Amino acid sequence: MNNVVIHINDTTLRDGEQAAGIAFNVEEKIAIASLLDSIGVHELEVGIPAMGHEEAESITRIAKLGLNAKLLGWNRANLSDIQASIDCGLDRVHVSVPVSDIQIAAKFKGQRQLVLDKLRDAINFACDRGLSVSVGGEDSSRADESFLLEVAQSAQEWGAFRFRFCDTVGILDPTTTYKKVSHLVSHLSIVIEMHTHDDFGMALANTLAGVKAGAISVNTTVNGIGERAGNAPLEEVVMGLKYLYDIPTGIDTKRLVEVSRLVSKATNFPVLPWKAIVGENTFAHESGIHAHGVLQNPITYEPFAPEDVGWERRLVVGKHSGRHLLLSVLEQHGITLGQAEIQSVLDAVRHQSVKTKRSLTVEELLSLVPQR
Ligand SMILES: CC(=O)SCCNC(=O)CCNC(=O)[C@H](O)C(C)(C)COP(=O)(O)OP(=O)(O)OC[C@H]1O[C@@H](n2cnc3c(N)ncnc32)[C@H](O)[C@@H]1OP(=O)(O)O
Ligand SMILES: O=C(O)CCC(=O)C(=O)O
């Protein structure tokens, strides 16, 4: 994996927004695009121009911002969709075609040839107008492998610069992903992009397996938002590449929490405290054994430093805390206790934590300390 450069194509503004109940307004789309650009995300799938109205307006306004990130519009294999992308000022388009027989039956009269015909027409239309064309195989994971390869090779031959492998309903595991993506990589010269869903909690693992297999572009969404169970989270992919595969992305990871907060606010959905990388508990330690370890050396219970993603470490006192953490917190407030006293404070902490069903504030803890 040495010297591999992985391209992050974030689709928060397209697949992310497709999550049921999420609808960004124009200003929110602009703010999210600008922040993602400023932390160094390489490419942004900014939306679906064919939707028209506010969607087209926000894409047009994003296109005028002069961002460093490349901008991509999502299209069906329809000439009118591609024209809508051009009208928004985009010069890079993504054309999606269904590739599994399940999808082809529902959308293209069960005719594989119609998939190829519509794709060829769409690519030709876009290329004739000077656009860069990326192609997506919707439901690649359930497609007949030889037809999937035929579509991808045809896309390459007709002028596409990239083929997106989509695990549309999130049914792959990393081993199967690796096999399927390796097969494509070995037969194509254009870039393969991973697009995974989290229906079985495999989105990150399958994205990384795809990278291991030779995909060099990946789709992400901030906080993992997206259709049904969501997509591979930007923050997890970037940190996974960095720490599990030693692949830097050039993205300013110190601002990942800031990005997560902006998107959470715009979606109106909170981030769960235990959400990997950006959840507020990711660097919080309450349990006695953990806190004791962290007080000696933080790497005992942290995979990387909180500052790396814009968090701070928090040591909180609650039901599971032990003497070492309690003594350390009290010491910071100039309080020293004897062994007998500390045990009785610990008992009181446990009782109060169960009663209030949370950890204690510092004031609550201090109120439990016997006055001298
Ligand atoms: C896996 C994915 O995430 S794919 C992306 C899905 N995203 C979205 O659907 C969000 C945005 N979508 C929309 O705003 C609307 O669905 C629009 C504007 C794209 C289309 O709206 P409508 O014209 O009302 O059609 P509707 O959504 O009901 O049906 C989809 C149509 O697209 C067709 N279609 C679906 N996929 C493709 C494709 N890849 N290429 C060409 N046509 C396609 C369907 O067969 C259907 O065609 P029909 O109207 O001739 O029967
Ligand atoms: O880009 C495509 O082809 C489809 C992408 C997608 O959202 C999916 O397959 O889940």
TrEMBL record:
Q: Which UniProt keywords apply?
A: Acyltransferase, Nitrogen fixation, Pyruvate, Transferase
Where does the Pyruvate carboxyltransferase domain lie?
A: 6-257
Keyword Cytoplasm part of the UniProt annotation: no
Q: Which residues form a coiled coil?
A: none
- InterPro entries from the entry? AIPM/Hcit_synth_CS, Aldolase_TIM, LeuA/HCS_post-cat, NifV/FrbC, PYR_CT
Catalytic activity of the protein: acetyl-CoA + 2-oxoglutarate + H2O = (2R)-homocitrate + CoA + H(+)
Check the record and name the Gene3D superfamilies matching this protein.
1.10.238.260, Aldolase class I (3.20.20.70)
What general EC class does the enzyme of this chain belong to? transferase
UniProt cross-references to Pfam families, sorted A to Z: HCS_D2, HMGL-like
GO MF annotation, one: homocitrate synthase activity
Which terms under GO biological process does the entry name?
carboxylic acid metabolic process; nitrogen fixation
**EC number of the protein:** 2.3.3.14
Q: Which PANTHER family match?
A: HOMOCITRATE SYNTHASE, ISOPROPYLMALATE_HOMOCITRATE_CITRAMALATE SYNTHASE FAMILY PROTEIN
Question: Which family does the similarity line name?
Answer: Belongs to the alpha-IPM synthase/homocitrate synthase family.
Purpose? This protein is a Fe-Mo-cofactor biosynthetic component.
Q: What is this protein called?
A: Homocitrate synthase
